[in-house]
Amino acid sequence: MRRHRKVKIVATLGPASNDYEMIRALFEAGADVFRLNMSHGDHSEIAARHAIIRKVEQDLGSPIAILADLQGPKLRVGTFANGEEELVIGQAFRLDLKDEPGSNKRVLLPHKEIFDALEPGATLLVNDGKIRLRVKDCGRDFADCVVEVGGTISNRKGVNVPDVVLPLAALSAKDRKDLEFVCELGVDWLALSFVQRPADVEEARNLAKGRAAILSKIEKPAAVRAFDEILAASDGIMVARGDLGVELPVQNVPPIQKQLVRKCREAAKPVIVATQMLESMIESPMPTRAEVSDVATAIYEGADAIMLSAESAAGDYPVEAVTTMANVAKEVESDPTYTEIIEASRKAKRKSVADGIVAAAREIAETTNIKAIACFTQSGTTALLVARERPRVPIIALTSIEKTARRLCLSWGTSCVITENVDRFKSAVVNAVRAAKAEGLATDTDMIVVTAGVPFNTPGSTNILRVAPCDERLIYSSHHD
What we know:
The chain is of the alpha/beta class. It has helices at 20-29, 43-60, 112-117, 173-185, 198-208, 221-225, 227-233, 241-247, 253-266, 289-300, 310-313, 318-333, 336-344, 353-367, 381-388, 402-407, 425-438, 472-477, and strands at 8-13, 33-37, 65-69, 84-87, 92-96, 106-108, 123-126, 131-138, 142-149, 151-154, 159-160, 189-192, 213-218, 236-240, 271-274, 305-308, 370-376, 395-399, 414-418, 447-453, 462-469. The protein folds into three domains: 8-72 and 170-335, Alpha-Beta Barrel (TIM Barrel), CATH 3.20.20.60; 84-160, M1 Pyruvate Kinase, Domain 3 (Beta Barrel); 353-477, Pyruvate kinase, C-terminal domain (Pyruvate Kinase, Chain: A, domain 1, 3-Layer(aba) Sandwich). The two termini are 31 Å apart.
């Protein structure tokens, strides 16, 4: 199904989007990727949603990407004798390993690793940063703190430790079970929570064994500091602004978002901007002006995808939220300023034949009346390189590998078409022309650019470019093969 926009939309599924009719409606409204949140729902529920997505894909004849988002290790305090306590600024409060109900003076923090890593002066944030504690003294089983920002602390509230790289694996025992389950199920992307270092990504990649692409969520200061190495180890990135805005001063998040999006684009790896994009639409059919501006900003920055969380998973207006995102995208992308910003931010770091081919394809498309760039791709790399160029014309990714087509649904401006294997360039050109016409991008009187690698079916071999007429008679009358 052709989208009249370049940015992709990721919609999270949940109680509000749990049946065939709703999931199909979300896709038809504009969702390109469906996110399965492994923090909610058991394996049977996840499997049921996966099956429905694949049924929608089959019925509509269009590839759909499925992203499984692993929960990651959750750091939480224990419980309180009274259920909750009020902490006031300046008071002393202890976190320890005693498995006893908490009081106004102390509470269990059942994570020995935190105590091993803490140092005096470190900050602990409780309940999404609503309570701020400063460590005064600590040991292997306790941390004596002073309350810097007070408030109500209650059972099992989350804890963030922004100052410290914690000696915690990014994958908990639950995550390992979930990872194996969703890889066997057949998801296309795995999102890793709580990534702090490239080794976290490598661990997940070893467990996935090529069954899913690895997407790292950037939600900790340590991940921002090690971003270049994490990006190199990952297939894609999610700028997860929720926890990032808790662990860092909120004013730091917009420039970090902009920097990370630029770096992902330079590396030709898809990047999702996520969290609270249309938060008010959980309960309202209309977004706020600020939310619309936030969505627009991510699009102007050149993000591959923008994401809905609770808006589509548990909100009252899931289809309206997707429709709003799609409408904002169409409006932004039709703005001449958008093209100027995208093209001004293009950085030429071309080191290979494939880099040169896709750059030439984009330049030819923009200097002549070319309707689309069609690229044959096995692994998806060529399509990602074309998308990095952010051409003004649509990109058609043709592949015989269903898994590659689905993964590329996350990539900017890319329409994915599953085609048969080809072994001659002329056959490839014919298939590309037919796809361009079937997608409504060209007619017999138009031309497209076709890129491919010879020999065929060899990943990373892009080495040929042709400007092709869309009239098949002209292709067959050519002596070139």
